[in-house]
From TrEMBL:
Keyword Coiled coil: yes
Superkingdom of the organism of origin: Eukaryota
Basic and acidic residues composition bias: residue spans: 29-48, 82-93
Keyword Coiled coil: yes
Record's protein name: Uncharacterized protein
Organism whose genome encodes this protein: Rhipicephalus sanguineus (Brown dog tick)
UniProt-listed Gene3D superfamilies: SGNH hydrolase
Keywords: Coiled coil
InterPro entries given in the database record: SGNH_hydro_sf
Coiled coil stretches, renumbered: 1-28
Comp. bias intervals (Polar residues): 49-61, 108-118
Region named Disordered: 29-131
Amino acid sequence: MKELVQELSTERTLREELSTKVAALQAEVDKLRPSKGHLDTDDTDVHTEQQNTAKVLSNSMAKDETEEDREAGPWLKVGKNNRVENPTKEKATTQRSNEQSVPKKWNQPKQQLRYTQSQHRRSVVLGDSNAHRLKRQLHKDVSDWRLRVTTKPGATMEETLLRAEKEIEQANSAETKLQLILHVGSTDILNEKEPHRSIEQLKQKLTAWSQADPQHHYILCATPELTPRGPHVVTACREWNKQANELCTMLGPQVEFFSTTNQMDGDYLEDIHYTEATGTHVGHLLAMKVANFLGVYREHHGSSHKLVDVYQNKTTQCEPS
């Protein structure tokens, strides 16, 4: 930096000396000009002499310009703290910096599109106290802000469907693709002599939603077979699950029936509620569907597993389940 400043100072001195030479040469030229009394003098000779003088000065200044000055480019400027600023170099550096600062995902249009689409997805679980027992494992397996679990002890089919309707309205307003998971039905089976009423309510709403909002995905969870309450309740639960399964099959692929009753061994209930082990197992299986919808998947590594965002490759370490 000091060397550049010294060279600039030297150049300034040289230019001042050249200015002095120019003044001296100009005086010589003036002496050669004819006076007013010599009208027969040829003006062409004087003009030619001036052109030759200008050419000599130009060549002299070109010699005095150092090679480093030419490499530095136009308008070499010394700024604050004797900082040498080269506009051409600064512009190139800024351009390279801007190119490097662009995230890689923006340079991959297809991947960015998939990522953007996944960010406009939400998964909502609504249900009773058994749905609440799935919450811990769901959030453990899918640690994602796009998943929400909302439950109420003893929730009925009617009030759960009303809450679901509000969730759909909010998703439509936000232009969000919704995965709506319903885990409800046990209360209605226990309180009604005929469980068909809750199935009719369910059929009416699911039919309307799947037709009006086919962009959303609906999952209806099977009600557990409440063995401790007697064989007649178990029969009612099985009949309810059968009709619910037929309903989902009839409505098409955007409506899915989720059942794990055939995988349950031994006493998986405490009265009418899932045991802790059952909640972990069912929650884990349901989490797979949530993760698939939101665009994340599980990688197993020994005793632990990872959740990986498919589009962003973001990894979250989880405890073994």
